Amino acid sequence: MGGQTALNLAVSLADSGALDRLGVRLIGASLPAIRAAEDRQLFKQAMDRIGLKTPPSGIGTTLEECISIAEDIGEFPLIVRPAFTLGGTGGGIAYNRAEFEDICRAGLAASHTQQVLVEKSLLGWKEYELEVMRDMADNVVIICSIENIDPMGVHTGDSITVAPAQTLTDKEYQRLRDYSVAIIREIGVECGGSNVQFAVNPADGEVMVIEMNPRVSRSSALASKATGFPIAKMAAKLSVGYTLDQIPNDITKKTPASFEPSIDYVVTKIPRFAFEKFPGSEPVLTTQMKSVGEAMALGRTFQESFQKAVRSLETGFAGWGCAPIKELDWDWEKLKYSLRVPNPDRIHAIYAAFKKGMRIQDIHEISFIDKWFLTELKELVDVEQFLISRGLDQLSKDDFYQVKRRGFSDTQIAFATSSSETDVRLRRLALEVAPTYKRVDTCAAEFEANTPYMYSSYEYECESVPTNKKKVLILGGGPNRIGQGIEFDYCCCHASFALREAGYETIMMNSNPETVSTDYDTSDRLYFEPLTVEDVTNVIDLERPDGIIVQFGGQTPLKLALPIQQYLEDKKLAGIHSGDSGCSLPTRTVSAKCLDIIRSWTTKLAKRLNVCGLMNCQYAITTSGEVFLLEANPRASRTVPFVSKAIGHPLAKYASLVMSGVTLPELGYTQEVVPKHVSVKEAVLPFEKFQGCDILLGPEMRSTGEVMGIDYEFSGAFAKAQIAAGQKLPLNGTVFLSLNDLTKRHLAEIGRGFRELGFNIIATSGTAKVLQLEGIPVEPVLKIHEGRPNARDMLKNGQIQVMVITSSGDALDSKDGLQLRRLALAYKVPIITTVDGARATIDAIKSLKNKSIETLALQDYFQTTDASQNLQAAQSAS
């Protein structure tokens, strides 16, 4: 269930003997099955045994072996796929010898087993995935087929994908289905879900097996939301002995899980990228995943679901086309390059190419995107031209239906007809054109669905049946992105759970397949829809909720709520974005006087702004103890899940109850909680995916996730957080120090700290002189521009175990410092860029040397109870 991380950990535990020693058994995917699927050599042998083709390839465990394999294959480009890695980490496409060697080095370093697969490129072939499930009685079902619009060469997590597969003939689909069943049996996954990926030659239909994941994957989450079949839930039941025919279908209540899902709609997933956050990194898509989130949409046709998915991304587009995009101003050479080289904006380059008169065949020959998809997209351009020629007043009811069924939003129609979105909406409603809502039922309407999981379409029969109960609409956060992730989904889910307990009917609206809020059983009704004014208004018109909660989904729903929007402020302050910064609770260095000021100001602000629920305030404190308010947001922040787990109280639940009319005294939650233990939150940063980008943090948020460590001492909590974030702290060795002039006053403290831990110190000339004056042993080392051997050489030779570099921000740092920081990242050497970080790291290493890590369940840290139980007890007594 934990993806690649969990599989790698399972293998490590087995290899260390821990599983045998403790009598623990792996269920679902056994150790031999994991090895057979993840070990590139074993997988290739397994495919040979059942007569399935894999691309010409070889397995390398050293750079020399990889080069030999490349020479045997004989031509570039070549694909490098490391074994036991997540999201294609360390892999890539090599177009020449130099690129190949660089990628192989990175792949060998990233692989859990120091093993990479070097294979012949299948660029231009079509890519498909099948989600497969097997039980212990050897029953196998295909949950979903998924087709990548982008051809081979783009990681499936970065590709636009469609379910079910659109361009396979029935014969081809049945062949892939048979192959998938044979593969899961041969690999030996006893029970649970697996993901199988195929490449198909569009010229002759030849099929190659690319890989198989013996676990749930991001495609499993997509398939679950696309079909309504909860793959992870079913896999868990299968792993404890159930068979597919013994598990009822949650949605129909009549069919068993052995009844393969059948869908009468089309699902489109589009990834969201953040290359603008990583300057210096080329926005090119390869076999290494780089997207930070994704949006999904459902429609009765590909065109409808595709348009809805584009506007669900929240990147400034109300759909595909009908917008003044930059690509329209490009010359032919630049446009053709964008069509040829996979990139985040290629889909918009296709629109520009059609607008400039390029033919379907021409675009296909450049991009290798299947002509079926290009034909569907060309028709959307033709509809746009129809709208431009007609004008708003001349559109009939039938015209509106034809346009809306192709996914066009009111905003797009307004652009094409030179009118306003309000005018389009009024005209549409005057003609009685409104969306209907269809149910996701897993069976293409063969049986009645009991679970209200809805999507919109412009048809005549509406399958959503609103009730007259008191109800609340909760707006989710849309696709994950840097700065707005699953922290907000946590809040939305807990709001739904709490309001359901309080007797409200909850209605969830969101477009993110990666979230719990879009599970069909999180709320009473789920609308899987884009979070735009038009789409939200349509749901409001149908449901007529008593209230709408926009406080928990981050910035997305707030932008839809003008009465709240006036209170927001975006300052872009210099410094490190709070989302990228580590933090601790309780505070470690803030004085009691400053804390009293902060408490007083926050209380006054909340009352003056008349906030009901959660409010987030951010403060800055100078070295002299002055307190400054930076910003106040009347909504849940990304720290709510962290704080809730740190203090043992479900804050999102309390906030939703407060918004429903319950008071804090009624909840029994009136005192600030200061726990006896320490909790540390640390950001998880994706720099290894973005080569060429400096790892220094700034006001632009770059983290894609976060982890948390808890201990009774700060040092232990910080150490746990660093390990969880993938930062392996060494207990001995050599530390490289290079501090800028502003931070050199802290150098003696940091140097002594590392020396007391037994570390040797090397430093550049200026830093070394300061340490020598303080009597601290140090070995001077050349800067990169001063000659060799230098710090870069020592890094490559494995002579440095920790690096502490505080940036000076000058031209030399942007050259030498950047090289060292990137190299440390590539060689997995912990790198620290702040004085506070160095202090905390010293404390953490000291803690790891002095005692073993203590592992406790989260509940064992607390003696608190859910304060809302006080309300329930009071209500029961009355």
UniProtKB/TrEMBL annotation:
This is Uncharacterized protein. Heterodimer composed of 2 chains; the small (or glutamine) chain promotes the hydrolysis of glutamine to ammonia, which is used by the large (or ammonia) chain to synthesize carbamoyl phosphate. It comes from the Eukaryota. Keywords: Amino-acid biosynthesis, Arginine biosynthesis, ATP-binding, Ligase, Magnesium, Manganese, Metal-binding, Nucleotide-binding, Pyrimidine biosynthesis, Repeat. Gene3D superfamilies: 3.40.50.20, ATP-grasp fold, B domain, Carbamoyl-phosphate synthetase, large subunit oligomerisation domain, Methylglyoxal synthase-like domain. Pfam families: CPSase_L_D1, CPSase_L_D2, CPSase_L_D3, MGS. It catalyses: hydrogencarbonate + L-glutamine + 2 ATP + H2O = carbamoyl phosphate + L-glutamate + 2 ADP + phosphate + 2 H(+); hydrogencarbonate + NH4(+) + 2 ATP = carbamoyl phosphate + 2 ADP + phosphate + 2 H(+). CDD domains: MGS_CPS_II. GO terms for molecular function: ATP binding; carbamoyl-phosphate synthase (ammonia) activity; carbamoyl-phosphate synthase (glutamine-hydrolyzing) activity; metal ion binding. SUPFAM superfamilies: Carbamoyl phosphate synthetase, large subunit connection domain (SSF48108), Glutathione synthetase ATP-binding domain-like (SSF56059), Methylglyoxal synthase-like (SSF52335), PreATP-grasp domain (SSF52440). Pathway: Amino-acid biosynthesis; L-arginine biosynthesis; carbamoyl phosphate from bicarbonate: step 1/1. Residues 44-240, 598-660 form the ATP-grasp domain.
